[in-house]
Specification:
The structure holds 2 protein chains of 2 kinds.
Chain A: H1 3-28, H2 34-49, H3 59-64, E1 76-81, E2 88-90, E3 96-99, E4 106-107, E5 118-123, E6 126-131, E7 138-140, E8 143-144, E9 149-151, E10 157-159, E11 162-167
Parallel strand pairs in A: 3-4
Antiparallel strand pairs in A: 1-2, 1-11, 3-5, 5-6, 6-9, 7-8, 7-10, 10-11
Chain B: H1 13-37, H2 44-67, H3 75-94, H4 102-124, H5 134-146, E1 154-157, E2 160-165, E3 170-171, H6 173-198, E4 201-203, E5 206-208, H7 211-231, H8 234-252, H9 256-275, H10 277-287, H11 292-295, H12 303-315, H13 338-371, H14 375-399, H15 417-438, H16 465-477, H17 487-491
Antiparallel strand pairs in B: 1-2, 2-3, 4-5
The chains are: A alpha+beta, B mainly alpha.
């Protein structure tokens, strides 16, 4: 085969190798930036939750569950404080177990949480929170849970050092 | 390892297929190009070998579609490209006087490795089952590392006693020990992470863990390092130690571990320099490579390193082209020094592309670790990623005289069956971890709000086969059943909620 053809093919191989690399990088899209984005989201949600931790949920959430207007259905569970801050979990129609045990839906990386600490489950259009006999207790707003209670979007659920919120 | 987002991923298997076809084009094209450049006839062997490789790779792809649909779509194409380029270069070196028939053996081992990876993927199903093997894998690691020392079983090649003679083939058990040690470190730290983090004595800014928490860990480390110093295999010693430090750093997120590790490594290097003649030679070659006296030494001189550097320089920007250089002037050009062969024939453009492929592969391994929710999976993926990146660093750093040259197999490229097998098994494990990381959260059906069945735990281990998974996913992603506001009063009375109204 002529030298020119071989040279052209050699460069073709290098070109193809780089096309492969660029298409891998292109197809990854923003896959690698996820952690950055969720960190930004956690930082944005942190200050908004901070001003009124003792005065109940922020105003929009309080306004939304008065009156006959249909209540917005919570779609996400967001960890706003603690070691896992920024973590998000989509809410489906099944309950969510929280705790340190590896089989939990949300594995809390929190030294003050119990193995199976608490359970969040849907009933009708609302979500209920139930403590599962944890050592350090589960707190909803200012009160320690004694039985299953409804959780509205914006309520602060505290487990150990972790604070969770429902978001619409 | 604290931030993670549970978003819904697509399987993206079709993307993988497209990238795989490109990867196979590169791999088989490179093989053909060697024949064109050397004016060798294209025999039917080329087509048979090419189709065998393509068939195996596509079989792996089909298994992923059936068994791990959500596995990372980029890992397999990257690995196929590297492995194929390795076979092509080994094939090219078979045309020189120094080697013959190595490419066929490499292809055979590639086949064995891919089949082994498929079997592992098929049988294991979930990487979390490996956690039960934490201490068994420690025992297996020790066994594997001691095997070459045993008389009658081990054999010595090129001054390193790391081979086991199986009769029909020789095998390097330390390659497999990489995986079992990574499993042990990950399992041990996943179980004892909290203890190591919380208990301990604070001295100045550094918190030291209690000795008994770390005892098994240090025994493992001392055994690995000790055995490898006895075997004269310093590349692997460096890699095991790097794995140990990286995994413990990721598990505890304390920078002090890196500092302690660096001190230990300097101490170990000083000891090795004092007592291991092999290592002292390597350091001398590294520092005085261009000294004529060192260069012309009959055995253990710097000839290999210097010729490798000349080879890289000869390649220049675009390389001499496959088949047109003289990569066989470097000894061990198809195994330890294969990077110089690529540098010479594909040039800076080609070699940097390959290093970038390694970087991408490392980032995919790490991404699998970041995405998965169990601590064991995270640590295992990180450990395996570190194994990959340290191998590349030790090899490329040694060839470019950044660190003393030590013999380690370049992952997927170098001729050598054991390394290939180990690296493909790692690929299978990471694919399983990434499948666990990317697949939708599967939760059981809600039978009763307070009943046993609705415990909210995942039933991934119980769901068998793709069919069961399919229904579970659909159930999960289906919109919640429509309900009126009255329904919620039927079962549970409202507990007073503090501070909400």
């Amino acid at each position: 085969m002529s030298e020119l053809a071989v040279t052209v093919l050699q460069f073709g191989l290098l070109l193809l190798l780089w096309i492969l690399i660029l298409s891998i990088i292109g197809a990854q899209g923003r896959d690698m930036t996820i952690s950055k984005r969720s960190r930004a989201r956690a930082a944005a949600s942190g200050p908004s939750a901070a001003p009124g931790p003792r005065n109940g949920p922020p105003a929009p959430a309080a306004a939304s569950h008065s009156g006959p207007t249909p209540r917005p259905r919570p779609r996400r569970l967001l960890v706003s404080e603690g070691p896992l801050a920024g973590t998000e979990l989509p809410l489906g129609s099944a309950s969510i177990m929280m705790g340190r045990a590896q089989e939990c839906t949300l594995v809390l990386d929190d030294d003050y949480a119990s193995g199976k600490h608490a359970r969040l489950f849907p009933q009708g259009s609302r979500w209920f929170l139930e403590d599962l006999g944890s050592t350090n207790g589960t707190w909803l707003g200012d009160e320690q849970l004694t039985r299953a209670s409804t959780v509205e979007p914006g309520d602060r659920i505290r487990i150990g050092k972790t604070v969770l919120e429902l978001r619409t | 390892m604290s931030t993670q987002t549970h978003q819904v991923y697509k399987p993206r298997r079709n993307l993988e297929l497209v990238l795989l076809l490109m990867a196979l084009t590169v791999a088989i094209g490179a093989q053909m190009l060697v024949a064109f450049a050397l004016d060798e006839p294209i025999t039917t062997d080329y087509f048979i070998e090419g189709s065998v490789y393509a068939g195996l790779v596509l079989a792996f792809h089909v298994v992923l579609r059936l068994r791990a649909k959500y596995a990372d779509p980029f890992i397999l194409p990257i690995v196929v490209t590297l492995n194929g380029l390795g076979i092509a270069m080994i094939h090219r070196l078979d045309f020189t006087a120094s080697y013959s028939g190595v490419a066929d053996r490499q292809l055979l081992w590639t086949g064995v490795s891919i089949v082994a990876a498929i079997v592992l993927l098929w049988l294991l199903k979930d990487h979390r089952r490996l956690r039960q093997l934490t201490y068994i894998s420690l025992a297996v690691s020790v066994l594997l590392l001691f095997m070459p020392i045993l008389p009658g079983l081990g054999s010595e090649e090129n001054g390193a006693r790391i081979w086991v003679d199986l009769g029909f083939a020789s095998f390097q058990p330390s390659e497999i020990a990489k995986i079992t040690l990574a499993v042990f470190f990950a399992g041990f730290l996943a179980n004892n992470r909290d203890l190591i983090l919380l208990a301990g004595r604070k001295v100045g800014p550094v918190t030291f863990p209690r000795l008994r928490d770390l005892a098994p860990m240090f025994i493992a480390w001392i055994v690995a390092i000790g055995v490898l110093v006895v075997q004269n295999d310093l590349g692997n010693a460096l890699m095991f130690f790097g794995l140990f430090v990286a995994v413990i750093y990721v598990a505890t997120s304390r920078f002090s571990w890196i500092a302690i590790g660096a001190v230990f490594m300097l101490f170990g290097a000083a000891l090795a320099y004092q007592f291991v003649g092999h290592f002292r030679d390597r350091v001398e070659i590294w520092l005085n490579a261009f000294d004529p006296e060192v260069y012309n030494r009959a055995f253990g001189g710097s000839h290999q390193v210097v010729q490798g550097l000349f080879g890289l320089a000869h390649g220049g920007l675009a390389g001499t082209g496959l088949g047109s250089g003289n990569p066989n002037m470097v000894s061990l050009a198809n195994s330890d020094m294969i990077i110089t062969a690529f540098g010479e024939e594909l040039g800076f453009i080609g070699l940097s592309a390959m290093l970038l492929l390694y970087l991408l592969l490392f980032s995919r391994y790490m991404r699998a670790g970041l995405g998965t929710r169990d601590t064991f999976g995270k640590l295992l993926a990180v450990g395996l990623a570190v194994v990959l990146v340290l191998q590349v660093f030790v090899v490329v750093g040694g060839i470019t005289r950044v660190i003393p040259l030590t013999g380690l197999a370049t992952p997927f490229l170098a001729a050598g069956g054991s390394a290939l097998l180990a690296n493909w098994l790692i690929v299978a494990l990471v694919l399983l971890i990434s499948h666990a990381a990317r697949q939708p959260v599967i939760v059981g059906p809600m039978v009763n709000a307070t009943g046993e069945a609705s415990s909210g735990t995942e039933s991934r281990l119980q769901s068998d086969g793709p069919g069961a998974r399919e229904t579970a996913v659909r159930r999960h992603s289906a919109p919640p059943a429509p309900s009126t506001a009255d329904e919620e009063h039927t079962r549970l009375d409202h507990a007073p909620r503090g501070g909400t109204q």
